[in-house]
Each structure stands twice: as C-alpha cells, then as structure tokens.
Write a structure and sequence with these properties.
- The protein starts with 11 loop residues before the first helix and ends with a helix.
- The protein has one domain (about 5-75).
- The protein is built from 3 helices and no strands.
- With about 80 residues, the chain is mainly alpha-helical.
- About 40% of the residues lie in helices and about 0% in strands.
- The model has no long low-confidence stretch (mean pLDDT about 95).
C-alpha cells in the first residue's frame, strides 16, 4: 500500500503538503513555501535519513516537478 498521495492527481502545493504529513515518521520536513523552489525542497527531502536509503531520484534531474514526484512516489509503492 502506498503511503503517499499520487502526484498525478493533485497540484504541487497539495502534494508537497501531504508529503510533509505522510512522511513525518522520517523526521521533520519543511513545507514548500515557494513553488519555484521545488527542486531545492525535494533535495532536502531526499537527504533525510530513511528516505535517502531508498535511493530516491534527484529533483535536479527533472525540469517538471510532476515527473520527479511520480518517480519519488513509486519508491513507496
């Protein structure tokens, strides 16, 4: 069962807010305050112990947040 909301069904802000809530067991995750900085937010997210061990994709390899979020989402499938 997937822990996260599917990013294909929501906008960036809602998805990021749900990630903060759904992955809080890995530690504190800051909210995405500026949507244009989604890659920096994602880089912080994948650096969290427990998440980083799942070998998450780097957001800097993607131009579209949704493409990265789908790959990230699949790690928890």
């Amino acid at each position: 069962m997937n822990t996260l909301i599917d990013p294909r069904t929501v906008d960036l802000r809602l998805w990021a807010d749900s990630v903060v809530f759904d992955l809080e067991q890995f530690g504190p995750i800051g909210r995405l305050e500026n949507e244009t900085e989604w890659q920096d937010w994602g880089a912080g997210l994948i650096g969290i112990n427990g998440i980083s061990q799942r070998n998450p994709p780097s957001p800097y390899q993607y131009d579209d947040w949704k493409e990265w979020a789908i790959r990230f989402y699949q790690m928890f499938d």
